[in-house]
Amino acid sequence: MSELVALWDGVESWLVLLPYPFQVALVLVVLVPLCWLVARLVDRVVDEISAKTSRVRDAEPPLRSRERYERRTGDGSSGHRHVASGQRGAP
Q: Distance between CA atoms of 89 and 15, rounded to whole angstroms?
């Protein structure tokens, strides 16, 4: 564990001694992809939880699973009903 702490201290010292523009660029190169991955993970978890706990039977599935839904139902319509403007009555 002491080796890990020593490595972390070395990286931290190296980062602190860099000029400020390089610090910002390095942090952005590391943090932007990391934050994007965390956001994707949170989005998928929320989609799965909301799909499983939804009370609506014919709720539209999350976007990424729409293709799976269409394959499962076999209709290929993804649950959308299109009504041309100006038409009235039952879809």
A: 67
If 0-12 CB within 10 Å is exposed, 13-18 middle and 19+ buried, where does residue 19 land?
A: exposed
- Specify whether the CB–CB gap between 79 and 65 falls below 8 A: no
- Count the neighbouring beta carbons within 10 Å of the beta carbon of residue 65: 14
Asked if residue 51 lies in contact with residue 72, where contact means CB atoms within 8 angstroms, the answer is no
The answer, as to whether pTM is greater than 0.70, is no
Q: Which residue has the tokens 């499983």?
A: 52
For the stretch 7-65, pLDDT in tens is 999 989 998 899 999 999 998 999 999 999 999 999 988 888 887 787 776 666 566 56
